[in-house]
């Protein structure tokens, strides 16, 4: 400015508007930034829109987009992600985490063999106690009695009410039901009375055949002779086996697909002495006793073979040889007859000698 008078006149011009609007102080040349007042949320009033209509439409306006986590991908490429972090990440995006083991669940419902097979004494029920054979049977019986009692105690630890003397009646009923089910051809129900080992053995050679089986009576009370238990894979997976002696009277008749009798008879009853093994999955709460196997001793007489209707190969061969011989003789006779005939120069037969 050239003079003090010009400066005063300029200040008056600047102050005039302030005085016009009722402002006492003059406007400074430089001002500082004012602090913002924090917004206070109302208390006691729900944070909702005043208009309840179109609430879904208002919510649809906002889209939540999951951005890619590039930092996690970099850590994963450097193999710095722990299994726990990987499992948490997969759980967050809704993907099932892969298991470290590739094992499949397996259920064992029965054993595939007979535990410590019971060997029936020769001449069972026939040898006298006074004789040498009877004394030997008594000694062998005492040797295996300790293991049998131990197995019965183990079975009782799973079934408190188990008593072998009373259980034999149940075993007899299972034995009858299993054979009747086989004769009726109800293969689905047969799984209830036979284990996975006995099932294919019972169905062997039974296809396209009619079986007529009937239980008449029991000649002697059934008796538990042998008991064993074993653990399969795990200590808690316990199985028990009982060998029962049956001396019964039965009838059996087997017919082929043409209705011809090939074994047994429906009218002639026979006495049958059998040693049947029953098995139960003791660890299974819903396990039941089922027929597992039959023990056939070496000294038992062989069963009567079936009367099958087929042609013996040796006999058929002999018949074919006879036919060939007859045909050869016939050809020789024809050749001799042709030699005795008289022919002309054109090969025509003129007569016979």
Folded structure, characterized:
- By secondary structure, the protein is α+β, with helices and mostly antiparallel strands.
- It has 9 helices and 6 strands, in the order H-H-H-H-H-H-H-H-E-E-E-E-H-E-E.
- Helix content is 37%, strand content 21%.
- The longest helix has 28 residues.
- The protein has a 4-stranded antiparallel sheet. Strands 5-6 form a two-stranded antiparallel ribbon.
Main features:
single chain, 353 residues, alpha+beta, two-stranded antiparallel ribbon, 9 helices, 6 strands, 21% strand, flat
Task: Offer a concise description of the structure.
Helices cover 37% and strands 21% of the residues.
Question: How is the topology of this model organized?
Answer:
Blueprint (H helix, E strand, L loop, with lengths): L3 H17 L34 H6 L9 H8 L5 H11 L38 H27 L5 H21 L2 H7 L4 H6 L6 E22 L6 E18 L5 E21 L8 E6 L17 H28 E3 L5 E4 L1
* Biggest sheet descriptor: 4 strands, antiparallel
Strand order of the largest sheet: 1-2-3-4
Query: What is the oligomeric state here?
Result: single chain
Task: Return residue spans where pLDDT drops below 50 for at least 5 consecutive residues.
Answer: 15-27
* Number of helices, counting only DSSP H or I runs of 4 residues or more: 9
CA radius of gyration: 51 Å
The average pLDDT is 81
Termini Cα gap? 178 Å
The percentage helix is 25-40%
Please give the number of β-strands. Answer: 6
Approximate shape: flat
Structural class: alpha+beta
Secondary-structure element order, as H and E? HHHHHHHHEEEEHEE
| β-sheet strand percentage | 15-25%
